[in-house]
Design goal:
- Strand 14 and strand 15 form a beta hairpin.
- The chain folds into two domains: 166 residues, Hexapeptide repeat proteins (UDP N-Acetylglucosamine Acyltransferase, domain 1, 3 Solenoid), CATH 2.160.10; 81 residues, no CATH class.
- Helix 3 packs antiparallel against helix 4, helix 5 packs across helix 6 and helix 6 packs across helix 8.
- The protein is built from eight helices and 15 strands.
- By secondary structure, it is of the alpha/beta class.
- The strands form three sheets. It has a six-stranded mixed sheet with strand order 3-6-9-12-14-15.
- The longest helix has 29 residues.
- The structure holds coenzyme A.
- The site of coenzyme A (COA) has 13 residues, from strand 14.
Length: 259
C-alpha cells in the first residue's frame, strides 16, 4: 500500500511542475486524497460493503469535489490535477498513468445497467472540462482536448478535440492534397473523406487512393523509361495515360514521350 502511495506522489512530481515537495503534495492535492479514498471505497465495494463504500465515496466528494463511484476500476499512478467537478461513473475503467484535469466527466449515455462508461487505456490525458460519454475505449496515450465532448472511440495515440470530438492529425497536409488530386483524376467524389476520420471505410478509401497514387507514379516511370528506349507502347495502348502524365518523367530523363 505504501509503495503505491509513494508512486502516486512521484507521479504528481512528474506531471505537475508546480509541485514543490512531498509534504505539500500529500497535504494540498485533493486529487491524491480522492484516489486514496477511492481505493478504500473500491475495496469495500468489492467486498460487498456497498453502502459503506458509497459513504466513503460521498465523504471524498464532500472533501475534494471529486466524485468517483466506488465500482470504478482505476490503475496505478492515476493523477487528478486540481480535481474540482470531476465525475467518474460506476463502470469506468482507467489504466495506468492516466491524467485527468478539473471538470472531466467519464459518464454514460444510457440508463441500462451493465457497461455504460468509458475505458481509458494507459497514459491517456483528458483536458479540463472534457466529457467522455459512453462505453467505448480511449486508446493508450490518446489526448482529449479541454472541453471536448467525446462520444466515440479514440484510437491509441490520437488527439481528439471539439464538440463532437474529432481526431486532429498534424503535418499531413501534403497527403490530404495528394488524395484529393487522385480522387479528382478518377472522377471520384471524396467529399467528407478526410484523413482524420476514424471511420474504417473512409480510411480504407484513403489508403486505396494512396496506393493508386503510388501505382500511377510507378507506371509513369515505366512509361518514361520505355519512351526513352523508343517504344510508343504507353502512348498507343494506354490512351488513358495522357502525355503530360509522364512528360515530367521523360523530361527528367532528358527525353520526350514517344508520339
Ligand atoms: C488537445 C491538446 C492535448 C492538444 O495539444 P497539442 O497536441 O500540443 O496540439 P496543438 O496545441 O498544437 O493544437 C493542434 C490544433 O488543435 C487545436 N486545439 C487544441 N486544443 C484544442 C481544444 N481543446 N479544443 C479545440 N481545438 C483545440 C489548436 O487550435 C490547433 O489547431 P490548428 O492546427 O488549426 O492551429 C491540448 O490543446 C489540450 O487541450 N490539453 C489539455 C490541457 C488542460 O486541460 N490543461 C488544464 C490545466 S489546468
Amino acid at each position: 500500500m505504501f509503495e503505491r502511495m509513494r508512486e502516486d506522489i512521484q507521479g504528481v512530481f512528474h506531471r505537475d511542475p508546480a509541485a514543490r515537495n512531498a509534504f505539500e503534495v500529500v497535504t494540498c492535492y485533493p486529487g491524491l486524497h480522492a484516489v486514496w479514498l477511492h481505493r478504500a471505497a473500491h475495496a469495500l465495494w468489492t467486498s460487498g460493503w456497498k453502502w459503506l463504500a458509497r459513504g466513503v465515496s460521498n465523504f471524498s466528494r464532500w472533501l475534494t469535489g471529486i466524485e468517483i463511484h466506488p465500482g470504478a476500476v482505476i490503475g496505478r499512478r492515476f493523477f487528478i490535477d486540481h480535481g474540482m467537478g470531476i465525475v467518474i461513473g460506476e463502470t469506468a475503467e482507467i489504466g495506468d498513468d492516466v491524467t485527468l484535469y478539473q471538470g472531466v466527466t467519464l459518464g454514460g449515455t444510457s440508463w441500462n445497467k451493465g457497461k455504460r462508461h468509458p475505458t481509458l487505456e494507459d497514459g491517456v490525458v483528458v483536458g479540463a472540462g472534457a466529457k467522455v460519454l459512453g462505453p467505448f475505449t480511449v486508446g493508450a496515450g490518446a489526448k482529449i482536448g479541454s472541453n471536448a465532448v467525446v462520444t466515440k472511440a479514440v484510437p491509441a495515440g490520437a488527439t481528439a478535440v471539439g464538440i463532437p470530438a474529432k481526431i486532429i492529425v498534424k503535418g499531413d497536409d501534403g497527403l490530404e492534397a495528394q488524395r484529393q488530386a487522385m480522387a479528382d483524376k478518377l472522377g471520384f467524389d471524396a467529399y467528407g473523406v478526410s484523413q482524420d476520420m476514424p471511420d474504417p471505410v473512409a480510411r480504407a478509401i484513403g489508403q486505396l487512393l494512396d496506393h493508386l497514387h503510388a501505382v500511377d507514379n510507378r507506371l509513369e516511370g515505366i512509361c518514361g523509361a520505355l519512351g526513352k528506349l523508343g517504344s510508343d507502347y504507353c502512348a498507343k495502348d494506354m490512351p488513358q495515360l495522357r502525355d503530360e502524365d509522364f512528360a515530367g518523367v521523360c523530361k527528367d530523363q532528358g527525353d520526350k514521350p514517344a508520339a
